[in-house]
Amino acid sequence: MADTAGGWMTIENLSHRSGVTTRNIRAYQSRGLLAPPVARPGSRSAYYTQEHLARLRLVNRLQERGFSLAGIADLLGAMAAGKSIEQVLGIESAIIASEEDQSRLVSERELRALIPEGIDGDVAIKRMLAVGMIDRRERGYRIRHPRVLQRGADAARAGIPMDALLDEFVHLRADLHEIALRFIGLFVGYVLQPSVVGGTAAEGLPTILEQMKELRQLAVEATEVLMRQAMADEIEAVAQSTLPNRR
């Protein structure tokens, strides 16, 4: 079953990707474990994103560890208070450790001040929550990527509809997940599986974890460099075809 275009998923797509039944997806929403789907301009349906998929996978992971749904709700509450799930559980931190946290905690008033004039603040906040641009916190919100939000607000002020920008954010996350899966496939096929088959995975775990971190850095740096070059190439092509000739 294919996802809808650009990272947006129907409930059936989300169920297929997560392994969670549509009935349970709706049950998680009613318990507050999963945010509701987000409406898209021009569509009567509501859709899910990679953010919803990540949350469902987290709930699955916790259930496999024996947590009840009530216990999971408590853990998610701890996350909302500012702790990461790794801090709460103390798991897999060596592999999924992220770079220095660039997120920013703001009050609702501060967040609304960042939204350009003429845009419905309630709708914008709801959509930013759904696509993973921000998280709700006990006393406000956490902006995950402040510079991205600021650049997006500037683009909205320049005339690009905020809905279109958030739509592109969803597309980009889906594309990057595909890139990440390809790099992880290389690691699993050429590093991890040979270690497991050869029986050296246990004693070689520190080295394997370090190699995973190095591959992660390679993927991040390569993606940034190639994106900069791609943008430069496309901007030059557009300029040559649409801007007046300058003498």
Overview of this structure, please?
- The protein is 64% helix and 6% strand.
- With 247 residues, the protein is mainly α.
- It has 3 domains: 96 residues, Multidrug-efflux Transporter Regulator, Chain: A, Domain 2; 62 residues, no CATH class; 71 residues, no CATH class.
- Strands 3-5-4 form a 3-stranded antiparallel sheet. A two-stranded antiparallel sheet has the order 1-2.
- A hairpin with a 6-residue loop joins β1 and β2.
- α8 packs parallel to α10 and α10 packs antiparallel against α11.
For this entry, give a set of tags.
two-stranded antiparallel ribbon; 6% strand; 11 helices; Multidrug-efflux Transporter Regulator, Chain: A, Domain 2; mainly alpha; 3-stranded antiparallel sheet; single chain; 247 residues
CATH architecture call of the largest domain: Orthogonal Bundle
Side by side, the strands of the main sheet go 3-5-4
**Beta fraction:** 5-15%
Whole-number tally of structural domains: 3
The H-and-E topology, N to C, reads as HHEEHHHHEHHEEHHH
Structural class based on helices, strands and sheet pairing:
mainly alpha
Q: Count the DSSP helices.
A: 11
Q: Would you give the CATH topology of the largest domain? A: Multidrug-efflux Transporter Regulator, Chain: A, Domain 2
Furnish the topology, listing elements before pairings.
Layout: H1 11-18, H2 22-30, E1 38-39, E2 46-47, H3 50-64, H4 69-80, H5 85-89, H6 93-96, E3 104-106, H7 108-114, H8 121-131, E4 134-137, E5 140-143, H9 146-157, H10 162-197, H11 205-242
Antiparallel strand pairs: 1-2, 3-5, 4-5
Helix pairs in contact: 8-10, 10-11
